[in-house]
Amino acid sequence: MTPPTEPTDDDVSLDELLPWLEFGCWTALVLAPILYYVNGPSVSTDQAVVRTGLVIVAAVGAVLLRFVNWRRKRAA
């Protein structure tokens, strides 16, 4: 029987994490109108504020992370 292999380094570096965070932000922006269409308009002020806040956070995060990733790639 083969002995189990030891796991290698499972740490995620910042260079690996930042592109995935950017991808998540862009994905949230693309899915927001689709989810709005599927779920319909907001039924309360709280729901409208949360939806708007999530879109704003995703948009700012996507643009900011695009700039950060571009700068890090250029510096390397």
Number of strands: 0
Structural class per helix/strand content?
mainly alpha
- Tell me the helix content: over 70%
Quote the beta fraction. under 5%
The Cα radius of gyration reads 19 Å
Number of helices: 2
- Give the distance, in angstroms, between the N- and C-terminal Cα atoms: 45 Å
What's the overall geometry?
flat
Characteristic key phrases:
mainly alpha
Folded structure, characterized:
The chain is built from 2 helices and no strands. The chain is an all-alpha fold and 76 residues long. It is flat and about 60 Å long. 3% of the residues are buried.
List the helices and strands and how they pair.
Layout: H1 14-39, H2 45-75
Helix pairs in contact: 1-2
Short description:
The chain is an all-alpha fold and 76 residues long. The protein has helices spanning 14-39, 45-75. The chain is 75% helix and 0% strand.
